[in-house]
Amino acid sequence: MGIMTGPSLQRIALNRNRPYVISKYFLMKRYSAYLLLSSLIIIFISCNTHPVLQRNNTDFKVVGYLPAGRVDTTSIPFQYLTDINYAFAVPAPDSSGNLLPVPLPDTLRGLVKAAHDHGVKVFISIGGWNIGDGGGNDTRFEVLANNEATRTRFVHSVMNVVRTFDLDGADIDWEYPDPIEPSSSNYVLLMQQLADSLHPAEKKLTAAIVSYHDLHGYGIKKEAFRIADWFNIMAYDDDYNTFHGERVPHAPYWLDVRSFDYWVTDRGMPGDKAVMGVPFYGKGKGMGASYRHLLAEGANPYYDVWDSIYYNGIKTMKEKTALALERGAGIMIWEIGGDTTGKYSLLKAIHDELESKK
Q1: CB of 140 within 8 A of CB of 134?
Q2: Alpha-carbon gap, residue 79 to 35, rounded angstroms
Q3: Rounded distance, CA 236 to CA 250, Å?
Q4: pLDDT at 78
Q5: Is-contact 75 113, C-beta < 8 A?
Q6: Where exactly does CATH 3.20.20.80 map onto the chain?
Q7: Which residues, other chains included, contact 292 with Cβ-Cβ below 8 Å and sequence gap of 6+?
Q8: According to the model, what pLDDT value does residue 286 have?
Q9: Residues of the chain scoring pLDDT < 70
Q10: What is the pTM of this model?
Q11: In a 3-state reduction of DSSP, which class is residue 334?
Q12: Comparing C-alpha atoms, which of 199, 154, 152, 153 is closest to residue 174?
């Protein structure tokens, strides 16, 4: 998941199609040229047209991650959200399949009550980038998923949390199952066992996954697509994932385009299960800061860069929302505590864009 550490003023354009060139030979044969050009136009359009999902805007998901220590139920704009992922519960270090106690349990109870009063669902998110053994070390997941007994114990532990706190489902943030055996198959087995318990109880199962940038995408087998209710695609932090820490935009618009291309077009994920992630923070100069903090320091809410720190401003956030409405199932945010209030709120920008499309 993202870290508290968006695209530049000059949009990076993604265009994988090169202009077609018609030779002089065909130009001398006008009829042949006409047929050729017509065929090329059809090919060009077909290559650049993506399926448009037919949905009511009310089905569009706005999923906000919220770390336990940042919960303030009096300031959460529930009217702009459909789901909140409470982050994080983590597997026990012995890989027994048990979960460690949920952080700040009374805070979670208060969040669930306030959210449900506003018609917003709450999930427990399990995992994260650092589950206690160093960033990116997923050994706990790898070991517990490799054995039926520990998988079963994990499912029982998750269901106990869901029932105890009256939650609406669980979100699995395993970073990341490997694109080799047995890791990728164990991920499918774990997700299936979770679904087999959650779905009969009318609870949801979701998962956080990479954008497209490395082989870990192939750790998510196609079989998993039918199991989860939707996938939260982490389309941010791409400065490290692709550009090795250079000072470049970590979440440009083209990253969302490429992520939809990878998961929906290339891999076959149903578009109505693809929820695109956006950051409410900026990165650059070896540091990160919340969108709220950047505005307080003088950043323009409509721009995407300030003092060499890249973030997503209102204009880009609306463009990403329009893209997700066309090609996916919703928007996911890491994390909503980074937003500001009032007219420059990014959650409000998402909401306003959805309203404009009704």
Answers
A1: no
A2: 54
A3: 6
A4: 98
A5: no
A6: 56-356
A7: 280, 338, 339, 340
A8: 77
A9: 1-57, 213, 241-246
A10: 0.85
A11: strand
A12: 154
pLDDT of residue 275: 98
Tell me the C-alpha distance between 217 and 238, whole Å: 14
Triad 256, 257, 258: Cα angle to 5°:
90
In this predicted structure, what is the pLDDT of residue 225? Answer: 98
Collapsed DSSP state (helix, strand, coil) of residue 34: helix
104, 111 contact by CB (below 8 A)? no
Q: In angstroms, how far is CA 178 from the centroid of its own chain?
A: 19
What is the CA 129 to chain-centroid distance, rounded? 14
Q: Provide the token pair at 65.
A: 């991650």
Are the C-beta atoms of 239 and 283 separated by less than 8 Å? yes
200-213 pLDDT, tens digit each: 999 999 999 999 86
Structural element, H or E, at residue 355? helix 346-356
pLDDT tens-digit series, residues 212-269: 867 889 999 999 999 999 999 999 998 876 666 567 899 999 999 999 999 999 999 9
How would you class 5 by CB atoms within 10 Å of its CB: exposed for 0-12, middle for 13-18, buried for 19 or more? middle
Please check whether residue 114 is in contact with residue 149, taking contact to mean a CB–CB distance below 8 angstroms: no
Handedness of CA 212, 214, 215, 219 (dihedral sign): negative
Residues 98, 157: contact at Cβ < 8 Å?
yes
Report the pLDDT value the prediction gives residue 214, as an integer from 0 to 100. 72
How many Cβ atoms from other residues are within 10 Å of residue 60's Cβ? 20
Nearest 10 degrees: Cα torsion 52, 171, 59, 213: -20
Nearest to 228 by CA among 150, 156, 174, 157: 174
Q: Tell the CATH topology of 56-356.
A: TIM Barrel (3.20.20)
